[in-house]
Amino acid sequence: MAEILVLVEHVDGVPKKVTNELLTLACRLGEPSAVWIGDGADAALDKLGEYGAQRVYASVDPELSRYAIAPKAEVLASLVAERGPAAVLLASTAEGKEVAGRLAVKTKSGVITDAVGVSPDLIADQSVFGGSVFVTSRVSTGTPIFTVRPNSVPPEPSSTSPTLEAVTVTLPEAAKTARVLDRVVENTGARPELAEAAIVVSGGRGVGGPEGFGVVEALADALGAAVGASRAATDAGWYPHQNQVGQTGKTVSPQLYVALGISGAIQHRAGMQTSKTIVAVNKDPEAPIFELVDFGVVGDLHAVAPALTQEVQARKG
Amino acid sequence: MKIVVCVKQVPDTWAEKRLAPADSTVDRESVDGVINELDEYAIEEALRIKESAGGADSTVTVLTMGPEKATESIRKALSMGADAAVHLLDDALHGSDALQTSYALAQALGTLEWDLVVLGSESTDARMSVLPAMLAERLGVSQLTFARKVEVAGSNGSTTVRIERLTEAGYDVIEGSTPAVISVVEKINEPRYPSFKGIMAAKKKPLTTLTIADAGIESGGVGLAAASTAVTGFTEAPPRSAGTIVNDEGEGGRKLAEFLAAKKFV
Ligand SMILES: Cc1cc2nc3c(=O)[nH]c(=O)nc-3n(C[C@H](O)[C@H](O)[C@H](O)COP(=O)(O)OP(=O)(O)OC[C@H]3O[C@@H](n4cnc5c(N)ncnc54)[C@H](O)[C@@H]3O)c2cc1C
Ligand SMILES: Nc1ncnc2c1ncn2[C@@H]1O[C@H](COP(=O)(O)O)[C@@H](O)[C@H]1O
């Protein structure tokens, strides 16, 4: 069976949920090989095996993490040349897309971003123009490269015992032109990660201020959800920018999206329109967000959201 | 400092976008075109870098690849304050995908003098966010992308560029030197509005049109027929069925909870 390369995203030595999703998808397309950049691959072998990785290529050279983006594309390009995989899968995050873009140029291959599925004959599904059009497409040149949206494929365990192979690459000078001086991690707490969460509760300008996000967080915690925010809320400094949902924030596609005090501007919709179920609370019956909702409440979020939180807690017992 | 800003004309944000049934490319004829919003931030940042670098030889040039209509966006960029524009315009380019667009833009950049290329981090129609990275790879220069802050320091050929790159977890501080490719996010600045004077002045600014031959682009390397990806089919999604809207009269929270319970979210 043909080999499928999957670029692993990991935090503190643990593969992210999106990696499990990509490995699950890769199992349907061929034999998944995980590509691990950085330390900790040996300790994560079992985890990667749980989702079907047959091989793990590990590139541990600390030099790779001193530069942004380009080194990852170099590692993948060398594996593409050596192994001739049938496809390469990456997460459709800002970084995943950029690595994919550089890899596409390096290997003279077509790249499809934001796929929500890939069939065994390597046809990708995309939902474009804010979910109004479904497109199927394929790569016709080189090694197909796909970036796949988090939350598109439910991860399915399939136990394998992957082998570990070390990979070394010598970085060309051009890959060493963007030095990473610092990586600042801003605390996002214990809540699920936005792009990966099954439920997202977002607050906008209607929340009224930083304290107002307490209402949003309380509902999120009752539902086991991640917290999102509109640009109006992040720009005002009420909530961290990493939580921004929208065109220039994160694209989320959860099972349930709850919009509190968000008008539903086109740039916000761009990041949440493909959510399976959408509900909103807004005091303005004319707010455009209501065009999208499955269920909407016209009212003050400061009354409705706490009542909802209480109901949810009561039902959970 | 010589700066080139890549600007794309996209279908109006509010327009209903569609694919042309004949060749599955974005239908650019039936809708109004606007400058890609994020590219206005790119223009603004370029103008600020130019202004702080000073010097009579500092310039901002707009580079656009797109159909005839795209001159509207070029005019807007010039009226904001860019000095000159280059329009890569050739029917052979129609239907080019990201890989080919990056090739064509890299070739066009080859005809220009530049220290920095500034782009938006995403176009509202393609939404790929790959072009800046592809260009940096092709040009073999620093990739400084998804910047919410750009600092340019030094002069005389040894200029350092330091950015804050937004990441999933926070931000990275990344440094490179010119020549470099920068992409910006909307946090970076507030784009200026063209002034009346700017609009008048734009009419007299130089606009050069390049054909693919002028830019040394091979005709087999661009366009729909040679694209590295192909659309195999598309369908319009059924419109979302209208949802239930209730007015809160003290029961809104409970009604919403009931809806969520019926959907098995609680
Ligand atoms: C280049 C660019 C990129 C952008 N990217 C993004 C992006 O990624 N994400 C994003 O979100 N936006 C983005 N925007 C901004 C977008 O255009 C809107 O300005 C923004 O989404 C508005 O946020 P909001 O809905 O919270 O605020 P508003 O539009 O001010 O809406 C607030 C809503 O809250 C309601 N409200 C007020 N008080 C209450 C209350 N007590 N109870 C209930 N409801 C209440 C009001 O009726 C109103 O509908 C971008 C804009 C540009 C130009
Ligand atoms: N046809 C084009 N002409 C000029 N610049 C472009 C073109 N297409 C994309 N760009 C630039 O590349 C950025 C990212 O686009 P994309 O990768 O398509 O999301 C845009 O914000 C523009 O700055």
Descriptive terms for the model:
A: 317 residues; alpha/beta; nine-stranded mixed sheet; 27% strand; elongated; B: 266 residues; two-stranded antiparallel sheet; binds adenosine monophosphate
In short:
By secondary structure, chain A is an alpha/beta fold. Chain A has helices at residues 17-29, 41-50, 70-83, 94-107, 213-223, 231-235, 266-269, 301-316, and strands at residues 3-7, 10-11, 14-15, 31-37, 55-59, 87-91, 111-118, 124-128, 133-139, 145-148, 163-166, 179-185, 199-203, 226-229, 256-260, 277-282, 295-298.
Poorly predicted runs of 5 or more residues of chain A: none
Treating each run of at least 4 consecutive H or I residues as one helix, how many helices of chain B?
Answer: 6
- How many distinct beta strands of chain B? 13
- State Rg of chain A: 21 Å
> What composes the largest sheet of chain B?
9 strands, mixed
Strand content of chain B: 25-35%
Mean pLDDT of chain B: 93
- N-to-C terminal Cα separation of chain A, in Å? 49 Å
Structure commentary:
The complex is a heterodimer of chains A (317) and B (266). Chain A has 317 residues and is of the alpha/beta class. Chain A is built from eight helices and 17 strands. In chain A, helix 3 (70-83) packs across helix 4 and helix 5 runs parallel beside helix 8 (301-316). Chain B has a single domain, classed as HUPs (Rossmann fold), CATH 3.40.50. Chain B contains six helices and 13 strands. Chain B has helices at residues 37-53, 71-80, 98-110, 131-139, 196-202, 252-262; strands at 2-6, 9-11, 33-35, 59-65, 84-88, 116-120, 142-153, 160-166, 170-177, 180-184, 207-210, 229-236, 244-247. The mean pLDDT of chain B is 93. Strand 9 of chain A pairs antiparallel with strand 12 of chain B, so a sheet runs across the interface. The site of adenosine monophosphate has 24 residues of chain B, from helix 1, strand 4, helix 3 and strand 6.
